[in-house]
């Protein structure tokens, strides 16, 4: 399953973002290093459910359906804050950079209020440049990649398999063999990794980081008067990167208010219930939240997840079934499962995601909506309902 990492410097709201994304309650506090061990959980990306266009009633198994939107599970980890010198072991050290290495996409949370310094200490609102939060994180990640790639490169020399062995060694920091091989060839580096200069290693490690750790910027604490200026600065400083305004604490408050029956909330529209309208404190709080969020259209938390899963991590959602006529499994559940796969995945990859034996005995697949047979090289697309046929 795809893995997202919520990361950045300390005390910017990462744990609050994690709680809002997963509906859980990791430790949250207004001081650095609240997260001592990474919090792991499951978030949910939104995708259209095929039951709407197929005109059937779905009975979801692994991903609930809400008003035609399938909530597809993805793994997410809340990584403790990165401080200057983290790649050298400062702060919480390299163990958290290692957690980042396992991720398919990064959500770099920054303090859009400008109210925390490089180490996450509270300072006057607007006194800290939010673009520095991103630079700090990327610099530390680049330095860590440089050290690991360089250390591995020095080990490999003098054998006919030296390059392949080097590429394979980088799997430990989440770099697929094919990505390592392609990046190495693209830079035109020599045939023996141990002879690479520091400049060569720096070029290679940065390219590998850019290609394997795509990121977006979650500009949190957008209820501050300094937020809009910092958001514009972030977009100017990182023009190729998505910058999403986020109200993580408001999203968490709305979810809890929904659970308590105080509001009706679908991710965008906020409506006080009769119970909520009788509570003066709730009325004032929801009014404040609604006014702030209306300026941006949402709290940004779900948007960040969706863009990370489908944009950065390049996932598609496929719906496997066993009965192509009724779109059901052998228990009669209709469109029971929604599975995330990398863009470019084939029916064989889908079979492997269901069960390894199914992939090894794959014959062909069926596009259940079109009622046509598709081969093992078909590239799957989001929303397809697929039956896999295998030998017994």
What does it look like?
With about 400 residues, the protein is α/β, with parallel strands linked by helices. Strand 3 and strand 4 form a beta hairpin. The longest helix has 24 residues. It starts with a strand and ends with a strand. About 5% of the residues have low confidence.
Brief account:
This protein is an alpha/beta fold and 392 residues long.
* Major β-sheet annotation: 7 strands, mixed
- Integer count of domains: 3
Proportion of beta-strand residues: 15-25%
Q: What's the rounded overall pLDDT mean?
A: 90
Low-confidence stretches: 25-37
> What's the total count of β strands?
14
- Please state the overall shape, judged from the principal axes of the Cα atoms: flat
Estimate the helix proportion, in percent. Answer: 25-40%
- Content-based structural category: alpha/beta
How many helices?
14
CA radius of gyration: 23 Å
Distance from N terminus to C terminus (CA atoms, Å) equals 27 Å
Helix/strand order, N-terminal first? EHEHEEHEHHHHEHEHEEHHHEEHHEEE
């Amino acid at each position: 399953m795809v893995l997202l990492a919520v990361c950045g410097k300390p005390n910017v709201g990462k744990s609050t973002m994690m709680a809002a994304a997963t509906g859980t309650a990791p430790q949250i506090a207004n001081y650095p290093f609240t997260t001592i061990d990474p919090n792991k959980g499951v978030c949910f990306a939104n995708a259209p459910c095929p039951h709407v266009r197929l005109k059937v009633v779905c009975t979801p198994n692994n991903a609930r359906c809400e008003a035609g939107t399938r909530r597809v599970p993805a793994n997410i980890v809340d990584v403790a804050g990165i401080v200057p010198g983290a790649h050298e072991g400062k702060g919480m050290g390299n163990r958290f950079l290692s957690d980042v290495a396992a991720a398919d996409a990064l959500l770099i949370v920054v303090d859009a209020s400008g109210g925390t310094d490089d180490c996450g200490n509270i300072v006057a609102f607007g006194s800290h440049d939010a673009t520095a939060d991103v630079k700090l994180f990327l610099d530390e990640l680049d330095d860590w990649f440089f050290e690991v790639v360089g250390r591995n490169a020095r080990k490999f020399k003098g054998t006919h398999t030296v390059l392949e062995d080097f590429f394979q060694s980088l799997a430990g920091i989440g770099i697929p063999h094919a990505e390592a091989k392609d990046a190495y060839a693209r830079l035109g580096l020599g045939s023996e990794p141990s002879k690479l200069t520091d400049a060569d290693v720096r070029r290679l490690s940065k390219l590998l980081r850019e290609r394997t750790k795509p990121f977006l910027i979650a500009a949190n604490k957008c209820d501050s008067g300094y937020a809009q200026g910092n958001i514009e600065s972030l977009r100017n400083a990182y023009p190729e990167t998505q910058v999403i305004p986020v109200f993580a604490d408001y999203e968490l408050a709305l979810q809890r208010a929904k659970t308590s029956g105080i509001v009706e909330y679908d991710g965008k529209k906020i409506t006080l219930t009769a119970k909520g309208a009788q509570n003066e404190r709730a009325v004032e709080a929801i009014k404040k939240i609604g006014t702030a969020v209306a300026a941006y259209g949402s709290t940004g938390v779900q948007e960040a997840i969706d863009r990370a899963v489908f944009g950065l991590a390049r996932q598609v959602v496929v719906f496997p079934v066993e009965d192509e006529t009724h779109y059901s499994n052998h228990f009669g559940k209709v469109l029971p499962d929604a599975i995330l796969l990398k863009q470019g995945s084939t029916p064989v990859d889908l079979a492997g995601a269901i069960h390894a034996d199914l992939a090894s005995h794959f014959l062909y697949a069926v596009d259940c909506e079109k009622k046509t047979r598709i081969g093992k090289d078909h590239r799957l697309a989001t929303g397809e309902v697929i039956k896999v046929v295998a030998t017994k």
